[in-house]
Amino acid sequence: MPFRVRARAHTTSLFIALLGYIALAVVIDLLTPQSIRLDVYAAVAPLAAAALCTFRQTVVLAVVDFLVMVVLSGVVPDDPQAVNRISAIVGNALLAGASVAVARLLRERDALLDRLRITGEAAQRALLRQLPLRSPEVTVDGFYVSAQQDALVGGDIYEVVETPYGTRVLIGDVQGKGLRALGAGAAVLTAFREAAYYRPRLVDAVSAMEQGLRRYARSSTRRGATASDAQGGPEDQERFVTALVLAVPGGETVAEGPVVPVTLVDCGHLIPYLIESDGRVSELEPAEPGLPLGLGELVDRPRTVQHLALPADARVFTCTDGVTEARAPDGTFYPLAERLGGWAALSTPELLDRLRADLDVHTRGRLQDDAAVLVVERTRR
Predict the structure, then answer these.
(1) Using the 8-state DSSP alphabet, how is residue 296 labeled?
(2) Which of 60, 110, 140, 297 has the most CB atoms around its CB within 10 Å?
(3) Helical residues (DSSP H) of 141-228, grouped into ranges
């Protein structure tokens, strides 16, 4: 059942229960001596409705409560304490009015939050496109889970760019997590999208990403210490980004051949896995692990480019350390390699669904870091 349908059914049940509460207060008031007035407690119903029900339901309960007070006070002609009756009516009227006012404020707040959420989701989706992403060469599926509540993106990044040289895939992990790492991640993504298309050599595209990160760090430093970390501040000059960049050349020969030539540049990222059609899972360990983006200037040599020939029906699985370092309540790390070995025969959507559900079970729904997963496979024709 959709969330909005469930919410509507829930408020309707509460509305009926509060109407029943008013009716019960009336019955008890009529059955007890006139010196004991319990009808004033009916005013609790619209107050509760202001917090729990819709605006329209709150107005209905407020009107019903007020009419009940007027009728009950009017059908007691021998009551010597007329002032008390008037006070009770006025008091209930004030409470009913306050309930309607509170309900109106809550309604406006919820509408504002809805607009902010829609705007925020649009902005975040502009940064990270929704998976799966397809090109003539490869299909990339996966998922992204932010460790920060109500955020769609955070410190992990990914992208798939179709270029004149084939398809280039990026996955990265910014130092830090959540929205505070968003600025550095956006800088790397922007540089990758531009350089991947215009730089024929993959290693040159990676160099452009590192330059983009350095420019962001310098501009963050100039903004001064008054800027918050979420918007970029002095501490951003120390941020680095682990990344794995993968390229598959275009052309009919590649698209239909028994193997797929893949070029990898590792920038201190986790080692990806190769999932073969026969169920074997192995690590694609780089010839020489590279330094993360932002630290490349510590060595005076270009980054290592690795050329692989992978089986055409194999898949490349890569993720960020939010997956491998996910902890159970007892501190146990998530056994990713073991799980992949047991799920290698599953289709990619099934594998991803199983992995995401298993992560939730392992961490009891409390992921400590942003988690991104990509599965790269040749596009089926």
Answers:
(1) G
(2) 140
(3) 182-198, 202-223
For residue 374, which of 310, 326, 322 has the smallest C-alpha distance? Answer: 322
**Backbone angle region of 365, left / alpha / beta, with phi > 0 → left and psi within -120 to 50 → alpha:** left
Q: Which residue has tokens 């893949």?
A: 262
Residue-level pLDDT, tens digit, the chain, 381 residues:
443 444 556 677 777 888 887 787 777 777 776 666 666 667 777 777 777 778 788 788 878 877 777 776 655 445 555 545 655 666 666 666 666 767 777 777 777 777 766 666 666 666 788 889 999 889 999 998 877 655 556 678 899 999 999 999 999 988 765 556 677 888 899 999 999 989 999 999 999 999 888 888 787 665 554 444 444 444 555 578 899 999 999 876 566 678 889 999 999 999 999 999 888 899 988 777 788 888 867 777 778 889 999 998 899 999 998 899 889 888 899 999 999 999 999 999 999 999 999 999 998 888 888 889 999 999 876
DSSP bridge partners of 306: 264
Tokens of 176: 């830090």
CA dist 159 and 49 (Å) reads: 47
CB-based burial label for 324 (10 Å; 0-12, 13-18, 19+): middle
Amino acid at the residue 249: P
Of the candidates 291, 197, 194, 308, which has an alpha carbon nearest to the alpha carbon of residue 246?
A: 308
- The radius of gyration computed from the CA coordinates of the chain, to the nearest angstrom, equals 31
Residue with tokens 């420019």: 215
Let me know if 358 is exposed, middle or buried by CB neighbors in 10 A (0-12, 13-18, 19+).
middle
In the sheet that 273-275 helps form, which strands lie side by side, from edge to edge?
Answer: 133-134, 138-145, 371-378, 315-319, 273-275, 281-283
Which residues are within 8 A (CB) of 35 and not within 5 positions of it... i.e. 6 or more apart?
A: none
Decide: 175 and 202 in contact? Cβ < 8 Å.
Answer: no
Instruction: Report DSSP state, residue 295.
Output: -
Q: Please tell me the distance from the alpha carbon of residue 263 to that of residue 271, in angstroms, as a whole number.
A: 14
**Of 86, 9, 98, whose CA–CA distance to 45 is shortest?**
98
Residue ranges of domains in the chain, CATH in brackets: 3-122 (no CATH), 128-378 (3.60.40.10)
What predicted TM-score, i.e. pTM, was given to this entire model?
A: 0.67
**Element counts in the chain: helices (H) and strands (E):** 10, 11
